[in-house]
Design a protein that fits this description.
The complex is a heterodimer of chains A (114) and B (113). Chain A is mainly beta. Chain A is 0% helix and 53% strand. In chain A, strands 2, 4, 5, 9, 10 and 11 form a 6-stranded mixed beta sheet that branches. Chain A has a 5-stranded antiparallel beta sheet with strand order 1-3-8-7-6, with no helix packed on it. Chain A is globular, with a radius of gyration of 14 Å. In chain B, 0% of the residues lie in helices and 51% in strands. Chain B has strands at residues 4-7, 10-13, 19-25, 31-38, 42-51, 54-57, 64-66, 76-78, 87-94, 103-104, 108-112. In chain B, strands 2, 4, 5, 6, 9, 10 and 11 form a 7-stranded mixed beta sheet that branches. In chain B, β4 (31-38) and β5 (42-51) form a beta hairpin. In chain B, 35% of the residues are buried. The chains are: A mainly beta (114), B mainly beta (113).
Chain lengths: 114, 113
């Protein structure tokens, strides 16, 4: 049973426009959420995170929104740049339950074209 | 500061062979874990450790063994390789409760023939 789901395997966006990547989760114990970015032949790198006590967190062009009632989070990238082209993974953990174990989604491949 | 170092980067095994994937970190992180990445499956947790001497199973532990004798090292052992274990393996580490999540290694691409 997939606890973290990314239902869009791919997304194509024009440079300068907004990219919106979505993620849904089923485990109500999850209280910390992260987004990672992955280029080919490299390990994933941390992008942005959000705790369940917040509903929004911003870092430059990246904003993560959390809707706890819907068990849904999204990553907004504004404006999108060609260098943002990568695979994006969302991940979740249940820190309140004393575990830092991260469960990942299946990933969304973002392509930003000129 | 090397971060998380994985060796080897590439490996081809025959079915039934055993091998150890090495992972070392120099950041004094308590938490270490192993993931495998397969097409359409994302990153799946194999085993993890919250400190030296403590390990636990993740989502897909079968066919793999781990130990954590030091804070720095977290090797992953394949006991008897099977074609289903063909994958890219990532090791990761973090401080407990870090707001920046895990630091990942660059991966080991394993092919079992």
């Amino acid at each position: 049973d997939q606890q973290v789901k990314q239902n869009s395997p791919s997304l194509s966006v024009q440079e300068g426009r907004i990219s919106i990547l979505n993620c849904d989760y089923t485990n109500s114990m999850f209280d910390y959420f992260l987004w990672y970015k992955k280029y080919p032949a490299e390990g994933p790198t941390f992008l942005i995170s959000i705790s369940s006590i917040k509903d929004k967190n911003e870092d430059g062009r990246f904003t993560v929104f959390l809707n706890k009632s819907a068990k849904h989070l999204s990553l907004h990238i504004v404006p999108s740049q060609p260098g943002d082209s990568a695979v994006y993974f969302c991940a979740a953990s249940a820190r309140t339950y004393n575990t830092d174990k991260l469960i990942f989604g299946t990933g969304t491949r973002l392509q930003v074209f000129p | 500061n090397a971060g998380v170092t994985q060796t080897p980067k590439f490996q081809v095994l025959k079915t039934g062979q055993s091998m150890t994937l090495q992972c070392a970190q120099d950041m004094n992180h308590e938490y270490m874990s192993w993931y495998r990445q397969d097409p359409g499956m994302g990153l799946r947790l194999i085993h993890y450790s919250v400190g030296a001497g403590i390990t636990d199973q993740g989502e897909v532990p079968n066919g793999y063994n781990v130990s954590r004798s030091t804070t720095e090292d977290f090797p992953l052992r394949l006991l008897s390789a099977a074609p289903s274990q063909t994958s890219v393996y990532f090791c990761a580490s973090s401080y407990w409760g870090s707001d920046y999540g895990y630091t990942f290694g660059s991966g080991t691409r394993l092919t079992v023939v």
